[in-house]
Amino acid sequence: MSPLRRLLVALGALLAALALAPLRAQPEAADADAAMRGDSSRYILLAVDNPLYRVPGRAGSSLPGYTPPQRYVVGAQAAGALATLQREHGLQPAAAWPIPPLGLHCVVYQLPPGTSREALLRTLAADPRVRLAQPLQDFELLGASAYNDPYLPLQRGFAETGAAQAHRSSIGRDVAVAVIDTGADLAHPDLRGRVAAHRDLVAPGQPFDTDRHGIEVAGVIAAVANNGQGIVGIAPGARLELYKACWYPASPKAPAPAPARCNSFTLAKALAAVMESDARIVNLSLGGPADPLLEALLAQLLRQRRIVIAALPVSGRAEGFPAGVSGVLVVGNAGTMALPAGVLAAPGRDVLTLAPGGRYDFASGASIAAAHASGIAALLLALQPQLDAATLRELLATDAAASAPAPSINAEAALARLARRTP
């Protein structure tokens, strides 16, 4: 190689080193790696062509085979392209490495605040300087659970709704869900830390923690994750507000416990109490006749942009209170034939959930289906708090033929739709 050629190669290597100085390891590299592992959604991976020169030996140096392997350096072309792209798009490099077999230099960039990852990737993909632009994606080992809750494999509803995959993006953190129902076992290990408030609007001072229906619904929505016992809620980061407006009538001679009951007075008190709370989601796993007072209260909650989720009545028609009130999201059992138009479907058969006394049991019914929908709504609102009921319905909607079993709403799919809508 001529002296001039050696000079040009050395100059190129120097320029590359200077241009890519921000990409070299910094003291905060460990923090950047931890940030990438914690939330990959704010990072992209970008690659540019990297024509490389081998660093030449000096005259009189050792014979080939007796010298250390010649190393590759970042070429001036790649360095210049990356430096320009960084300036143009305000990118902050987090990590970089060359891939000599592909002739590429790759960099992981953190997005500037407020930047849409999807829009930026479309722009970069159309840039002739860029060979590859993609999200920094997460993968998982198949067969390994992200949770240590032993009954998770028995949670059919959790699996059918894609909740585990959705939890990579959201666990419903700090979204308040009001559950108007019976009481619940507040000391249950899988509710510990999840109940932010509770009120007894039936008979204050009477037992609250022996009621079955309320804890079944609450467990589906927000049972504690990774506490080494029990199950995982659809939105384990949500905050529950429990309003006891229903009770179990005494029926000592009956072969089975009578279903819980409510009335206009207790439900009205509960709805009025929710108006004074910060709950964005109201779960009403109950049903009855049309009721002017309750409908007026519910209409006010809807005007406050609350998301009201109700169970489909046993008649199979969206009628009465609360399912017949316009603006309410009505949910029936997935797998049921010919649900009414506009009614969502979620798992509601043999769903493992919480039971009084720190126990667990299976529950069925549209009440449980509604609880799944409330949990998924919490996952979505944690990412986009301003969602309204109409938009939420669109995100949860599934396609099915009128004569086919209704497919379950899917949390992972709903979050993907939300990501596509978010600018």
Task: Give a description of the structure.
With about 425 residues, the protein is an alpha/beta fold. The chain folds into two domains: about 5-55 and about 70-135, no CATH class; about 150-420, Peptidase S8/S53 domain (Rossmann fold, 3-Layer(aba) Sandwich), CATH 3.40.50. The protein contains twelve helices and 15 strands. Strands 6-7-5-10-11-12-13 form a seven-stranded parallel β-sheet, sandwiched between helices. The chain has a four-stranded antiparallel β-sheet with strand order 2-3-1-4, sandwiched between helices. A two-stranded antiparallel sheet has the order 8-9. α1 packs parallel to α3 (about 75-90). The radius of gyration is 29 Å and the shape is elongated.
Largest sheet, described in full? 7 strands, parallel
Q: Roughly how many Å apart are the termini? A: 54 Å
How many β-strand stretches? Answer: 15
Fraction of residues in H or I helices: 25-40%
**CATH architectural type of the largest domain:** 3-Layer(aba) Sandwich
Number of domains: 2
Beta-sheet strand percentage? Answer: 15-25%
Give the neighbour order of strands across the main sheet: 6-7-5-10-11-12-13
| CATH level-1 class of the largest domain | Alpha Beta
Mean pLDDT: 84
Number of helices: 12
Low-pLDDT segments: 7-27, 55-70
SSE sequence, one letter per element: HHEHEEHEHHEEHEEEHEHEEEEEHHH
Give a quick summary of the entry.
The chain is an alpha/beta fold.
